[in-house]
Amino acid sequence: MRSFDSLSEREILALAAALEEEDARIYDNFADGLKGNYPDQAAKFSEFRNQEEGHRQRLLGLYHARFGEHVPLLRREDVRGFVKRRPLWLERPLRLKSVRKQAALMESETQQFYEVSARRATDPSIRRLLLELAQEEQVHCQYAENLGVSPLSPEEAKRERQRFALQVVQPGLAGLMDGSISTLAPLFAAAFATHKSWETFLVGLAASVGAGISMGFAEALSDDGTLTGRGHPFARGLVCGTMTAAGGLGHTLPFLIPDMRTAIAVALVVVAIELGVISWVRHHYMDTSWSSAVLQVVLGGLLVFGVGVLIGSS
Questions:
Q1: Which of 9, 99, 157, 288 is least surrounded, with the fewest CB atoms within 10 Å of its CB?
Q2: End of a domain among 147, 181, 216?
């Protein structure tokens, strides 16, 4: 691996052309990965690709004029100092936020490369081109950063909402429902059987954490998201498992209160809040009517709560 300081002007131009070619291909992959859900954003990355290809042609034109036809093979991985890039462009589906961030980092790194290279160049024509490209990359960097705040088109906004619902809300809701409802039975069975807050808390803690681990693994292993568009399995598993544990812990924590009656009363208030949150999420993101959402969630909660009380009191 070569150090940057050891490169000649001929090698710097060859490396710069290779960098521009790689960036153009990455932007082309970004455009291809985004065109299905974000066509307007994909068009912007296609424009980026064309601009990077234009930079490459200018670099090669000067190279051929100064050093001849043969261009040595020199890549970013052959030179120390470049940041290793995660192959985000290979992921499907592509996350728009990650793509925007990657583009800004790419442009910033390329701008820095041109500025440092221009300071080392002794040939006036090479220094002039490198400085021009550095200025253009600075504009590109600002443009890439602005992509993070540019509004989506109405159709893209709709698809983004659907993606968020599918990849985040759905596994989170499944976990919250499981944690908030399924743990009611063991928790209140322990409460009415032991009449002791601490023992009840331990049962609820074990049930919540165990359910969180189980649901997290089940969601992560259900599919890899390639065909369903449900996102990365580990991310879904983490969301689902965390929300499952949170749902159970919400009405478990009140049993840290020593007085059993007070603990049960506070826990019931927390349960009511949890069921209300679940109903709202189902209504807001899953297009379920308020009446249907409340009926389904409350009925399920009452049945599981009743089972716990019945078993604990027997």
A1: 157
A2: 147
DSSP state of 226: T
- Return the pLDDT at 41: 85
| pLDDT tens, residue by residue, 85-123 | 878 888 877 878 888 888 888 888 899 999 999 999 999
* pTM for the whole structure: 0.57
Distance CA 262, CA 254 (A): 8
Supply φ then ψ for residue 8, to 5 degrees: -85, 170
Dist. CA 17–CA 42, nearest whole Å: 24
Place of tokens 């969180």: 212
Query: Cα–Cα distances in Å, from 220 out to 134, 223, 240, 267?
Result: 44, 7, 9, 30
Q: Say which residues have a Cβ less than 8 Å from residue 166's Cβ, sequence separation at least 6.
A: 229, 230, 231
Mean pLDDT for the chain overall: 87
CB of 216 closer than 8 Å to CB of 145: no
Specify whether 142 is located in the same domain as 158. no
Residue-range definition of the domain harbouring residue 214: 154-313
Same domain, 118 and 172: no
